[in-house]
Amino acid sequence: MEPRNFDGDADRPRSAGAKQTGRVLVIGPYLRVRAGGADAQSESYVLRDADARLDEAAGLARAIDLVIADAIIAPISQIRPATYIGKGKVEEITGLIKSLEVDLVVMDCALAPIQQRNLEKEWNAKVLDRTGLILEIFGRRAKTKEGSLQVELAHLNYQRSRLVRSWTHLERQRGGFGFMGGPGETQIEADRRLIQERISKLEGELKKVQATRRLHRAGRQRVPYRVVALVGYTNAGKSTLFNRLTRADVQAADMLFATLDPTLRALNLPHGGKAMLSDTVGFISNLPTQLVAAFRATLEEVLEADVILHVRDISHEDAEAQQSDVDAVLRQLGINPDDSGRIIEVWNKIDRFDAEQRDELLNIAARRPEDHPAMLVSAVSGEGIDALLAAIEERLAAKRTTLDLSIDAADGAGISWLHRNAEVLAKELHDGRFDMTVRVDETKRDIVVSRFDAVPHLSA
Ligand SMILES: Nc1nc2c(ncn2[C@@H]2O[C@H](COP(=O)(O)OP(=O)(O)OP(=O)(O)O)[C@@H](O)[C@H]2O)c(=O)[nH]1
């Protein structure tokens, strides 16, 4: 066991308003991995050293205002079926739990239900595994009705699978000892039925909420807004960039998962065009597949986005591993992370580098293929934001047509239609007529051509 003094969090005053829900001991029961080995979790985990993994787990615990009494790494060489970690470690931790007076233990791994129960019994404390912790975080961060419903549904599905698995386990054990039935059986069945009823009810409610959402989206599609979506590892700076780009006062907190549900705002492009910018849930490593599935609908804006900004905290020591985690989640959602026509990499937090390091970063960025640029920005200082907006505009323009037309200056209705439905790139008054250059979606091209006799724009 390697105790680590975890930045004195237990004694530090928490930020005003933060609710203290309990003292927690965070345990990283990490398998000793030989080079090239895998610890049965996600591959990228092998890239991370145990300290960084433990820090991340502690960060997740802090995200729901838990007071971290201590965080320790418990290296293991094999997973024990009964308690995940070995007997000696279980006992050592029992002592630690008593001396630290904690009532919750976070195990940064996926525990089988029986392991969770055995540990809770041994330690006389509640035990949360990684999925349980993530579900707690999602639950607290859900802002919309849809988000809350999805979290509750994911939670119930998680519980149901645990009941089913533990039930199978008990049955096998009983069979082995020659017992039939026994106490607990009816309770489990009753629990399962209750959970199933609640799941069906929630699914019904969710369908209704999603239908409303689809209506809203259909409404938005009638205006020529394209969607730009922000994705990125949790804490990469998405909300801060979202605010910077839209100048909206949306909550940005130094917390994981400050945003769960997509938030949409208008994004003003340099030449007067508009797009919708959507902020999404922060991705994290090892996001259980069942959760990705549960949040697919919440991530619909990302699926449909014309341009996806992949925001990266380039100052983070795990920046590379975080990138592969985000790419993996994108793939799970059916998005090709190498689609350079759609994805722009945004290297955020460059204000954290000195001049020399920035030059080095610029060099690395300059060596990237031309169609795969990286935009260097600081969402906090605003540096690089104009260039980023120009890159977004250019990427969106690639999917649009530019047309020239001439319109009577007295045709107020026609001019206002053009302003609503097209991006007006140039407008000059000549002899009572406006000569205009406009950019429109492919879907609007034919209307503009027939209504205004527009012709394809000939660039100089
Ligand atoms: N120095 C520096 N800090 C930044 C920058 N952008 C964001 N931050 C900080 O990084 C932390 C996380 O920022 P958020 O915008 O909440 O991150 P997020 O990606 O939305 O996080 P989730 O909601 O958890 O996914 C906050 O403390 C921000 O102030 C930046 O450009 N420079």
Automatic annotation (TrEMBL):
Molecular function (Gene Ontology), one example: GTPase activity
Domain of life per record: Bacteria
Binding site for Mg(2+): S239, T259
Name this polypeptide is given: GTPase HflX
Gene Ontology CC: cytoplasm
Binding site for GTP: 232-239, 257-261, 279-282, 348-351
Keyword Plastid in annotation: no
Subunit-structure text: Monomer. Associates with the 50S ribosomal subunit.
Cofactor annotation: Mg(2+)
Subcellular compartments: Cytoplasm
Keywords: Cytoplasm, GTP-binding, Magnesium, Metal-binding, Nucleotide-binding
Predominant location: cytoplasm
